[in-house]
């Protein structure tokens, strides 16, 4: 459904769009961090000795 051009835009719609635009990077970084933590696969884990211990948690937290 597309809205007609002449239909007024509500103030709450503008505020909601502004909030979502402002938080786009934060939400994206949180999503990537959650995928890294829950998936258990990091790019740095391909290196020798980097895939165990604290390194699995430090990278996602630094990203977010």
Q: Roughly what percent helix?
A: 55-70%
Poorly predicted residue ranges: 44-49
Terminal CA distance: 35 Å
Number of strands: 0
- Give the assembly state of these chains: single chain
Q: Give the amount of beta strand, in percent.
A: under 5%
Element-by-element helix/strand order? HHH
How would a crystallographer describe the biggest sheet?
none
Estimated structural class: mainly alpha
Q: What is the general shape?
A: rod-shaped
pLDDT averaged over residues: 74
- Report the C-alpha radius of gyration, rounded: 19 Å
Count of DSSP-assigned helices: 3
Structural topology:
Layout lengths: L10 H12 L1 H16 L15 H9 L1
Helix pairs in contact: 2-3
Task: Explain the overall architecture.
The longest helix has 16 residues, at 24-39. The chain starts with 10 loop residues before the first helix and ends with a helix. The protein has a domain at 26-39 and 52-64. It contains three helices and no strands. It is rod-shaped and about 60 Å long. It has 64 residues and is mostly helical. The chain has helices at residues 11-22, 24-39, 55-63. 58% of the residues lie in helices and 0% in strands. Helix 2 runs antiparallel to helix 3.
């Amino acid at each position: 459904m597309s809205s007609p051009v002449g239909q007024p835009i509500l103030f709450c719609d503008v505020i909601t769009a502004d909030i979502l635009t402002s938080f786009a990077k934060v939400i994206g970084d949180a999503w990537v961090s959650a995928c890294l933590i829950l998936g258990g696969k990091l790019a740095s884990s391909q290196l020798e000795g980097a895939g165990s211990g604290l390194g699995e948690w430090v990278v996602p937290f630094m990203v977010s």
